[in-house]
Amino acid sequence: MPLPLSLTPHVVVFATDDLAALLQSNQIPPLHQLLENFSPLGQVITRTTTLVPVTHSSFTLRFSELTQVESACREDEEARAGRTIDWISGRIAKKAAGWVEDLESRNKGEPLKGDTKWWQELKFCLDGDRVPARGEGWNHPVALILATTTLAPNPLQAVANLHTRIADFPPWVDQNLLRYTLIVHPNNRSSLTQDETTALMNATKKQYGLHCHLLSLNLSTPQTPRQLKPSPPELPSLLQTPAVNSERGGVLPHTNGVNGASTEVLNLSDEDTVNTARFIREFVTQSLVPWMERCVMEWNETYSNSRRLPLRLFSSTRRLFGSSASSSISSTMSPTSPVSTNSLPFSNAPQPPSPQRRLAEFATLLGDYKLAVPLWESIRKEGKGGSDILPLLLAPSLTLEAHAAYALAPLTTGTALGGREDIQVGAAAQLKGLVYASRWEVGVQDILQLGGEKWLVWAAGATEEAPFALLIAQAALMCLRKGFRRVAAMWYVFAANRLEKCGVKPLTMYLLKRAHELYLLPPEKMLSPSFEDVEGKDHSPVSFDALLPSIELSLGRMKYTTGDVAGAVKLFLGLLRGSVVVQGVPGDGDKVLLEDYRLAYEHLISTTSEPPPLDEFSLPVSISQASRTRRRFAALHSREGDPVDLNERTQETLEALEERWRTFWRAAPDNNKERLEKSGSGEVGEKLWVDIVVKNPLETELTLSDATILVRDIGQNEGGDGIPEGVEIEVVPEIQLGPKERRTVSFFICSSRVVSLEVTHFSFKFLSLMPVRESLGIRGRRLNDTVAQQRSVTHASDMFMRVDIKQSGGRLKVRVPRLPSSLGLGELRSLSILVTNMGTTDISELWAVFGESSNGGCILSAIDSIQETDHPVTTISSNNCLLPPEPVRIPLDRVHSSASLRPGESFELPLLVQAHQLAPFELATLLVFREDVSAPVFYGCLVEHLIDVEPVVDILVGVRPQHGKDASYLISLEIENVGSSSDIQVSNVVAVSPSWVWNAVERDLAPEVGQLPAIPGKQIMRRLESVKLASSALQTASFQYLVQKIDDVLQGRSIEKDRPPPVDLHVSVLQGSNNNKETLNTLDRIVQATRRQRLHQSLSTQFPLIPPSDRPHIFPLFTPSDLELVICWSTTSEHPRTGFSVVSGLSLGSGASNLKDVVLRAELGLDSAGKTKKTRSMYAETTREREALVSSIRNSTWNHDEDPLVVEVVAAERTEHDFTAKPLVLPVIFNIRNTSSLQAVEFSLSLTPKSALDQSQHPVPRYIGALAHRGSIPPSSTTSIRAKAWIVKPGVYSIEGWSLSCRLAPAPSDSQEVSPTSFSQNPDESNKKTVIVASLRA
Predict the structure, then answer these.
(1) Which residues, in sequence order, are bridge partners of residue 1206?
(2) Would you say residue 600 has pLDDT above 60?
(3) Fewer CB within 10 Å, N or C, the chain?
């Protein structure tokens, strides 16, 4: 890459007055500007110290006027640097508005290409600084062009005067430069002939050397003027150039280079242009470059010799002459230049740049990087600079960042380079860092990949001036080009903060806008665009909240001060979203933001004739919470008669109970198509309330005024804003909300006519200033019907709360006067509901729809009469269905004095409630009533309340098969009294099952007569009981129904809405007799309600893919193996409690893969007949759902897989035998029981001991006789195998050494044989038998 402009050869020009007047008269710029228009030169060849040619595609020269450079050198360097920074800041502030306007008009919505104009201006100003500096020699002139014309009276004397003039440079300026003579010969104005000019030229060469040129100009007007190249701006000078330098003894001609006319075109003819270009090329190729090459060769030789000097000689030279060997180098480095006394090495004045540095600079200018790089490395190691130049010369690598950091470390403060903010650096150091950064941005190769934006930020340091802010802005632009948008936005913010302090408002606002746009851009995601749709996430971009509020606040205040009040209001409103942390805003940030908004909006409405429209400004967050909006009606009452808050849970409960009633009434035999008037509606002339939940999102107080709700008639257009006729709505004058306060505000609605309304908006005035309307609609469902809706996210119309106002009809007022605050777990509590007729007509028909709590509980009617029977009740009938119980008609003649309830009369409806889960119990009952059987409309009234549930008893049940020939099971009961205030008296334990009853023969090991013992607080009672199969036939119809329905589900057939076959439940009590029919009826309803709810929960977990509406028509309530235990208990406290704790979900008998055939056919793709199905789904989702459904059925409780056989070994525990006569043959009986109640089992018993596997501590006898026994065992049956053990000596023996294997009898299949399920078992702790054999002495 070419070197930056500030690192090119600097040539100073000194022209006589006649030449300056000649150029000015022909409207030609001063000579130094004229010559710079012909730079750079193309294809300039230089040579290295090894004579290797280096071709420069662009060789640039910088030209300055000598007097200006001399004047600038006399100014203090620190003061000049400060003036330069202020001058650049002034130019930026003056031009910023035009730059921003031009940029926004041209790059609207397009990425910025190239450099920004402010960055170009900054580099242009820095390139115009050509004053020599003390620490480096880049601005030190390498050549001096002494120019005159042939118009002088004595041109040779004029040349002599120019050469006798000594440059008035300070001693620290290197005066080792090339002196070049230029004689301009205007052909049409000079009086000299061609021979005379030639003679003048020869005389000049003879006297002053060959570095001279005769430039002939016609100075004719060109036909097409050439555009003048803009020259870099120069810092205005504070010092005037003297006309005569008396100290030097020479005449100092006055030049009007800066005072001449400014032209934009170059008025040179084509011939003059060619001659001038030829002069510039000859000057470079024949004079300047060879002179620089010679200097490099000489200096390099001297430098190399000095480095090879012995250390002792080097130190001796320093001791004898007071200087190092490098001092002797400087004496040989200016063969053609006079040296002033101020530059002698023995002077105390500042010295020019070191010879080593000048050698490195010249080598760099000539392109001899092989020589320059080691020199710069050597200078860097000596701590004299060079780190700023090495990044421009070296290949891109990570070491360049270290060079940049090292170069900037002493120049900046308050940065990551280790600077300290309490130590301030001067303006000269700051300007030097600015120059370094501009050079790197232009000259470093691959600066973006090297992280060069950090170098610019380091160079900016903590200086709060406009040029340094532009460094950070350029760093942001570099980050943006690399794709680092968040980092770029951060740098834009920092740059804007500094520019704001400098007063450059247009550029500050532009940078803040850019940062704001970048922070609002969503991050790039590699996921599919449909991912968020599937996950139900919002597509709105995620902004970076760390700095975005600060940007918006600064931008809003900037817009307010510049007159864009509407834009400021929008930004201030965007910040009022709560939990916003704004950097730089102390204390209560929300209060400050609110005051800014208030001030801006008040100013906006005071300067406009009409108020802003509603859709122009909107709050970023909703004050109201639409999902929490509720209705309250006088027709729905709680326990005390207050209007019920119709929240979401109550609404769902009400709708479910109403749907249950409609389903029941449609199938009722006396149905005459009477309809149920929908609950949740108001009546004409009566107030109803709409509750709006409002929340203050801010950390400061908030005021809402003129708050109300907006409604519209269902038949009215969407855009209607007026209140429907005959409707009155409450207006709340003022609502004061504290910080983060949430409050419910009620608005009444009263209508004088029948109407259906939708509550659409919540209207108020924000801070009593800005009118706001917030929608109370809830977003509709996702539409997926058409192709367009599937491709793009489309939702149905918003759903609004509907309020129906109807004519007055029948009405009941209900309340629960003695509602308990809590219920015990399993406690059966009697309640009563006080029902009052508040209508104007009699009520003769009343129904009750009892809700079943989803958290576990049941509500029963307590109107049944008590009936005692002499014989015990052993069975009760069950519909075996999961559907909830049907509504119950309330006989008014039994609960009231008459068969009708007249207006104003009341009665108490007795109920029984019971909770069986530790969760709030929902007491919900819908009373449905009408005037008489001829009335066409039913009305409803809901009573609902939540009751807490607390534990009373904790029950643990264990089940295991019982050894013996009968199919019995042992039931272990652990009943714990979890309370401590009273004892628990267990009165009975009731077993309810289609197949199992208590075993009257087998009782606890220590049976007790009479009542079971009481359980003290925190104590446990343990019982071990036995159950057996009932004597009646096994009821397998329900299980066959389940298998058929599961097969329909897996085969994809539609589920018929039939019900499972009914079942008779055996009821057996542990003690006493069950002859109380009311108690059994209550117990039956509790058991069925408990099982129904727990089975619903289990099915929801096991089969989520089966629709809930189909489950009651697939799964029966009871199967043959189910057993329910009911523990009847009571407390012995002052206020006793009575309860029925139900242990549900017990299943006796082996499952033995009862659904294996059905599942296997579904997995193999076979239909019910065993034939291959040809259906195949093209959707992967359907296939996955089917596989998940098959897996859930395979792992269900109805298909659990376990060994159905239980072995009991029977042998005499002690035997005496006379072994002197013969060995003992011990009879051993193996009782093998099939615990499966549905399938037969084929078994094989092997009596061959395996010594390698027997790990018994006692010897195992051998078996004689038949060693293999096979057979089949029917369901729930036992078979006995008799074997003989051969014992040859007395001792203790373990009856082991057998193994039992079995398999289920396969179901017949037409297509293929299903492989049966096999099991095997060996002796374990449960069936090991130990016998003692003693010797019988004769």
Answers:
(1) 1233
(2) yes
(3) C
Sequence-ordered list of residues with C-beta below 8 angstroms from that of 762, at least 6 positions apart, any chain: 623, 624, 692, 694, 707, 708, 709, 710, 773, 774, 776
Higher pLDDT, 660 or 839: 660
Question: Could you give the CA distance from residue 559 to residue 574 in angstroms, rounded to a whole number?
Answer: 14
Give the closest residue to 967 by CA, choosing from 1233, 1242, 1241: 1233
- Cα–Cα distance between 900 and 889 in angstroms, integer? 13
Closest CA relative to residue 8, chosen from 292, 428, 325, 310:
292
**Amino acid in position 5:** L
The angle subtended at Cα 776 by Cα 773 and Cα 781, nearest 5°, is: 135
Residues linked to residue 1283 through DSSP beta bridges, in sequence order: 1228
**DSSP letters spanning 1136-1172:** --EEEEEEEEEE-S----TTHHHHHHHHHTB-TTSPB
Segment (H or E) for 1069 = strand 1063-1069
Let me know: does 339 contact 175? Beta carbons within 8 Å. yes
- Return the SS3 of 382: coil
Phi, psi (5° rounding) for residue 1285? Answer: -105, 135
CA Rg value for the chain: 53
CA distances from 886 to 307, 662, 859, 860, 1026 (A): 112, 11, 12, 12, 36
Q: What number of other Cβ atoms are within 10 A of residue 330's Cβ?
A: 22
Per the rule left: phi > 0, alpha: psi between -120 and 50, beta: everything else, 490 is alpha
Joined together, the tokens standing for residue 1229 give 């009986």
pLDDT in tens, 641-679: 445 455 666 778 888 888 889 888 888 887 778 888 776
The pLDDT assigned to 581 comes to: 67
User: What are the start-end ranges of the H helices in 462-588?
Assistant: 466-482, 485-502, 505-520, 530-535, 548-562, 565-574
Q: State the virtual CA torsion across 654, 659, 665, 667 in degrees, nearest 10.
A: -160
Q: Which of 167-181, 527-541, 1088-1102 has the least mean pLDDT?
A: 527-541
Pairwise pLDDT comparison (833 vs 541), residue with the higher score = 833
Q: Cα(384)–Cα(393) distance, rounded to whole angstroms?
A: 18
In whole angstroms, what is the distance from residue 464 CA to residue 497 CA? 9
Angle between helices 77-106 and 505-520 (to 10 degrees): 60
Minimum mean pLDDT among 332-346, 1027-1041, 1220-1234: which range? 332-346
d(CA 810, CA 931): 8
> How high is the pLDDT of residue 146?
93
Backbone phi and psi for residue 357, each to the nearest 5 degrees, phi listed first? -70, -40
Name the pLDDT band for 258 (thresholds 50, 70, 90).
very low
Q: In b/e form, how buried is each residue of 1093-1120, taking b as 16+ CB within 10 angstroms?
A: bbbbeebeeebeebeeebbbbbbbbbbb
pLDDT-based confidence at residue 846 (cuts at 50, 70, 90): very high
Map residue 487 onto helix, strand or coil: helix
Q: Which residue has the tokens 């115009």?
A: 128
Q: How is 399-437 classified by DSSP, letter by letter?
A: HHHHHHHHHHTTT--SSTTS--TTSPPPHHHHHHHHHHH
Q: What is the pLDDT of residue 953?
A: 92
For 1288-1319, the pLDDT digits (tens) are 999 999 988 899 999 876 655 444 445 677 88
Q: How far is it, in rounded angstroms, from Cα 451 to Cα 947?
A: 67
CA distance 687 to 965: 75
594: tokens are 């609110």
pLDDT per residue as tens digits for the range 988-1014: 899 999 988 988 765 544 444 456 788
Question: Beta strands of 1178-1315 (E only): which ranges?
Answer: 1205-1210, 1214-1217, 1224-1234, 1241-1246, 1262-1264, 1268-1273, 1278-1287, 1291-1295, 1299-1304
pLDDT of residue 1007: 45
**Nearest residue to 651 via CA among 622, 668, 627:** 627
Q: In the structure, what pLDDT confidence band is assigned to residue 375 with cuts at 50, 70 and 90?
A: very high
The more confident residue out of 262 and 974 is: 974
